[in-house]
Model the fold of this input.
Amino acid sequence: MTVIESPRTPARRAPRRGVNLEKWGWIYMRASGVVLVVLVFGHLFVNLMVGEGVKAIDFGFVGGKWADPFWQWWDVLMLWLALIHGANGMRTIVSDYTNPGTVQRILKGALLLSTIVLLVLGTLVVFTFDPCPAGSPAELLPSFCPAA
Amino acid sequence: MSATTTRTPIAPETPAKQKPGGTLYRGREGMWSWVLHRITGVAIFFFLLVHILDTALVRVSPEAYNAVIGTYQTPIMGLGEVALVGAIVFHAFNGLRVILVDFWSWATRNQKVLFYIVIALWVITMLGFVPRHLMNVFSH
Done:
């Protein structure tokens, strides 16, 4: 027989086992957000405000930055924190505006897949990048290349 | 039955300073903070997808990367970058506001004031960024 509880009965806590992933997602959004403010503002300042700004960005500019492990790790950390932060935010939006079912599964699956592909791609690009590719026109290369 | 009790009820007089929506949340600072955070977040996410792919072109060839990054240096894209930076700066400052409201009881009580501080800091930051960026974009 179903017992109807008194209206003021405190909600019973659902039986919980293992880690609460939604709680850690909530914490991740705030922790990564604080770090991203520093990383993204630094990125925007160095690439858009210093010197000629966006006009100065070309292959040689990127090659010069990634010759320094400091900027390699800055960009890779920013990539991982920002993409997971953004994909998790998009997951929240998908949950808000779709009902559980095939469409929601497809959208969340697409988010997960694109996130994994872009994290792998971006990380490989930063760490396997060759600033002085053989056979490229010297004027396109960073000044430290033997060909330049 | 007297005429007074059967008369159509008249809406109460609107207070002089009617709050938009007339509720604690709807139409107020908290709602607009949420709306703007969501819209800027989605916009930044889709830019990030494109930006990872265009940067990955450095692994293809200097020519391929320079051809694509060159399109970021046109006047129209320069204005787009103003919008992008505006979205990022709002999302950053408002995100910090959300964190303060979550963890600090003073900020929870004063979340409306904090929203206007976010707007003020956004204006100051954009005043620093936009003229310099547009000078870079529109000069040769």
Observations:
- Helices of chain A lie at 21-49, 59-66, 69-97, 102-128.
- Chain A has one domain: 22-131.
- The two ends of chain A are 84 Å apart (CA to CA).
